[in-house]
Amino acid sequence: MQYALLAYTPPQDTDRAASPIPDTLSARLAGPNVTGWARLHAEESATTVRSSEGRMLLTDGPFIDSKEYLAGVILIEAGNLDGALAIAQDLLQESRPGTAIEVRPVLDGRLRGA
Amino acid sequence: VALDAVFRDQWSRVLATLVGILGDIELAEDAAAEAFAVAAERWPHDGEPANPTGWLVTTARNRAIDHLRRQRVLAAKTALLARDLEAGSQPPEVHVDDAATIPDERLELIFTCCHPALAIETQVALTLRTLGGLSTEEIALAFLVPFETMSKRLTRAKHKIRDAAIPFAVPPDHQLPDRLAAVLAVVYLIFNQGWGGGRVDLAAAAIRLGRALAGLMPDEPEALALLSLMLLHDARKAARLRDGRVVRLDDQDRSRWDTRQIEEGRAVLQRAMSGRPAGPYLLQAAIADLHLRQPRDWRQIATLYEMLASQTGSPVAEMNRAIAVAEIDGPEAGLAILDRLDLDHYRYFHSTRADLLRRAGQHGAAHHAYRRALDLAQTEPEQRFLQDRLAETAPGE
């Protein structure tokens, strides 16, 4: 059985890119039961994609939680934000109406192989 | 003072080149600011260098490299600089003698700043800072927000561009029409904000941006049309206010119109008229041109507004068509169009309606509409104008 763990943390003033993952946490992430992980850039780097009457709408910022529930996590590779948005829009077209996808850049992680 | 003008002209050009080299707007801005400070200190004594752009780019670039070396995060910042470091060599010198070797990357920068993943108010602020050469203080003042708020907004935007990898590039052909429309919308928004008459000359900043865009995209009719539209509107600036009141176009002192700017606007409009179907800015520029001619050709103005309304679905265009129709067929015909529009929140809707009601002899209704317009008016000259109209239509007069 596989599980996705979603980590939530209070906002911080320091630049995330400048603060390394503590060694003790690093050791656990390197363990055999972790199949992949990603540390994300702060919420303010997010862009949310929605579909409305056949048109794609972009919003600057994270998905604001309302009655929707978190339905999945998809990891993608793209050259820049335009590439990532194109993939998100393509996926959105095949998703249930009312679905939104938040696109958040990955800061660092181990996403493939083991 | 002369140096200020040089600096404003150079700022966006130098900054864009640095963003291209360094791949980070924040870093580029800090480096550019340092280089401009050095120039302000040295140029008055040493004289302006033969190639100011090259001098500023080289100085800024060297400062940025020093800064990155100190921070020891160079390798992560840019592949180009990382290569220099690994080779242990000095970074290649930019040839300051030859301006042609410094690429003009302002177009890349404006498309980055007006990327749809940034909120519109962020696009506006960032464009004014990077390409308009306005300081954060000036932008905060123009949009009536505290300095801290504007500063945070700009910093957040620069971080998002870096972290989310918003491309520094002119979009590919299939995206270009939408993306260019977004850029033009930002420039026109800046112009309209300035039209209200704030403390910062945003209209002048918008025209500078429009000139730069028209120069960078000389074959893009809508970029030319936007410049023409702004020039033609702005040419009437000196005649727009009298005794602290807004003056209606027909009452304006035409000798105060800037005829040279009108001629320039018309010349640009001619260039914008290509074989392609007219876009929304071309229609608006053509209308602005017609409004400057005497007598006004209301039929043609009505036709152009009809095209604009059907192209954009804008109720404001439809409202303006109603004004033209009222001139042709009488105020009742104009009012019939207004009655179909849902523009209750729009201040000019109520002043327009009031004017037509007054001309139709319905003074009570006109008075009521002027009152509503006054409630929504945002500037003092508009308020004074409306107070005069309110007094004219007051019951018992």
Question: Please, could you describe this protein's structure?
Answer:
- The complex is a heterodimer of chains A (114) and B (397).
- Chain A is 18% helix and 22% strand.
- Chain A is an alpha+beta fold and 114 residues long.
- In chain A, the strands form two sheets. A three-stranded antiparallel β-sheet of chain A has the order 3-2-4, with helices on one face. In chain A, strands 1-5 form a two-stranded antiparallel sheet.
- The longest helix of chain A has 13 residues, at 81-93.
- Chain B is mainly alpha-helical.
- Chain B is built from 21 helices and two strands.
- Chain B has a two-stranded antiparallel ribbon with strand order 1-2.
- In chain B, helix 1 runs antiparallel to helix 2, helix 2 packs across helix 3 and helix 18 packs antiparallel against helix 19.
- The N and C termini of chain B lie far apart (54 Å).
- Residues 91-95 of chain B have low confidence and may be disordered.
- Chain A binds chain B through residues 17, 41-42, 44-47, 58-61, 79-82, 85, 103-105, 107, and chain B through 115-119, 122, 156, 159-160, 163-167, 171, 175.
Helix amount of chain B: 55-70%
How does the helix and strand content of chain A classify structurally? Answer: alpha+beta
Number of strands of chain A: 5
Mean pLDDT level of chain A: 87
Low-confidence stretches of chain A: none
Secondary-structure element series of chain B: HHHHHHHHHHHHHEEHHHHHHHH
> Over the alpha carbons, how many angstroms does the gyration radius of chain B reach?
25 Å
SS field, number of helical segments of chain B: 21
* Broad shape of chain A: globular
State which percent range the strand residues of chain A make up. 15-25%
Q: How does the overall form of chain B come out from the CA principal axes? A: elongated
Largest interface: A-B, 20 and 16 residues
Oligomer: heterodimer
- Cα distance spanning the termini of chain A: 17 Å
Task: Work out the helicity level of chain A.
Answer: 10-25%
